[in-house]
Amino acid sequence: MSNLTKSLMAVTASAAVGFGSFAGATAPAEAAGLRCSTTRLSTPCSKQNARQITTYVKYGSKGKSVKHLQRALSQVGYRVSDTGYFGPATRTQLKKYQASRKLSAVGSVNSSTLHALRVGAGAKRVSVKKASTARSAVTSSYSSSSSKGTRAVSFAYSQIGKPYRYGATGPSSYDCSGLTGAAWRSAGKSIPRTSHAQLGGLKRVSKSSLKPGDIVGFYGGGHVGIYVGNGYIIHAPRTGQNVKKVPMSQMRFYSAVRPA
């Protein structure tokens, strides 16, 4: 079952090819860690393979696969701490997710739930024309600053697992400000290159008013990361480590800025 804990990978709406288009229900990136035996990500999980996963991801279980589930739920709006323990909070949010997708709200990971998480299946199947209209509406909304922040956050999630390298700005490796700069470039906004220049040249915001996409500085401004909500950032830590999501509280806060 080693496939259950494979490295994080970005999952886009294209993963749903072969299953039709679903409005407003793209697959959360963390669901990539919930792999079905040896099946490809774009292949529906058989009930047998889903039962194998349920053996490891069920009420009372612990581990990396549970963290993948918790993070995937948070990415689709059902917030739960990624503790790695499948307790009451995780079961409650999983039931809410299942109900929203018109699935049986059983509070456990069955084949239909796993399929929905992995390929982004939603509650209502729509025509290709309607799905295209929905995508156009979403694209137009990116003109707002909050949507740009969301795009920056989505990019940051997709880079998790890539190595830190001093002076790197992507796409295969990053230093801390290289990651924040690349995230905002993906949202259509060019920002200064270094951490000090970013923190000194962009609009300052307070720690209490942080929004997803804001750049948070630590240790006197020598390190930065992308705020992703709920007290977490995604950052490129240092040589020998990979891009990852961590609590802000792990580092000494300095300041925060909002690029747009």
Automatic annotation (TrEMBL):
Official protein name in the record: Cell wall-associated NlpC family hydrolase
Keyword Iron-sulfur: no
One GO molecular-function entry: cysteine-type peptidase activity
Higher taxonomy: Bacteria, Bacillati, Actinomycetota, Actinomycetes, Propionibacteriales
Chain ranges of the NlpC/P60 domain: 146-260
InterPro entries cross-referenced by the UniProt entry: NLP_P60_dom, Papain-like_cys_pep_sf, Peptidoglycan-bd-like, PG_Endopeptidase_C40, PGBD-like_sf, PGBDSf
Keyword annotations of the record: Hydrolase, Protease, Signal, Thiol protease
Similarity remark: Belongs to the peptidase C40 family.
A Pfam short name: PG_binding_1
One GO BP: proteolysis
Organism: Luteococcus japonicus
Signal peptide extent: 1-23
